[in-house]
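Support case: S-adenosyl-L-homocysteine complex. Customer-provided input:
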Amino acid sequence: MIKFDIITIFPEIFDSYFKESLIKRALDKRLIKINIHNLRKWTKDKHHTVDDKPFGGGLGMVMKVEPIYRAVKELSSLKKELSSSRVILFSPGAKKFNQKMAYKFSKLDHLILICGRYEGVDERVAKYIADEEISIGDYVLMGGEIPAMIVVEAVSRLVPGIVGKTQFLKERVTEGKGFVEYPQYTRPEIFNKWPVPKILMSGNHKKIEEWRKEHQKTIE
Ligand code: SAH
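Agent response - structure generated as follows:
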C-alpha cells in the first residue's frame, strides 16, 4: 500500500476530489492511503503563521521553513526504517513530472508531498528537506494542491487493482518505458458522416494491431 502525506495550508481543496471515482474506491479497498495535513498544525505562534516577507525585498510572501521542517520530520519518523519514502516539493521551475517518475513512485511505500503557496517556499526546503522538486508543467499555478492531486492520481493508477485489469496489463508490457496510447472508437460506426476507420471493424486482428502501432503515441 502506498501512503501519501500531503502538506498544505488549504486541506479542504482535496475533499471532493478524493471522494469520487477510482481514488475513492482505492481508498475504500485500502490500496492507497491519503492523509491531508494542515501545515498550520506545525506552527507555534498564536496566529499560526506559515509565511513571511522575503529577505532582500520583493513582492509577496514566502512560506517559512520551520513549520515545513517540523511537519516532514514528524511524518517521516513513523516507520522510517521499513518504508521507502520520498519527500517531494512542488516548484514551477523544477524538472517535469512524467510517466516514468510515476512508475518509480508507484514502487514506493510512502510519499510526502509539500504544496507551496504565495510567492513560493523558502529555498532551504528544496535544499535540505525535500528529496526532489517537481513541476507538473511550464506554467505557474497559485499553489501545489493541484500538482499533488496530479501526482496522487498518476501514481495511484499504476497500483495493481485500482484501474481495470486490461488497462493495467496494457501498461505492464511497457513498464517503466512509458504508456502506449492509440486512437479508440466506439459505436456508432458513422456519426454526422464521421466514420470509424474501416480496419477496426474488419475483425482482422493482425491488421488492427498494425494500424494501432502506426497510430500509437508513447507517453514517457
Ligand atoms: N514566484 C514563485 C511562484 C510560486 S507559485 C516562483 O516563481 O517559483 C506558488 C506555489 O505553487 C509553488 O511554490 C508551487 O508549490 C506551486 N506551483 C505553481 N506552479 C506549479 C507547477 N507548474 N508545478 C508544480 N507546482 C507549482
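The chain has two domains: 2-156, 166-219.

Case will auto-close in a few days if no follow-up is received.
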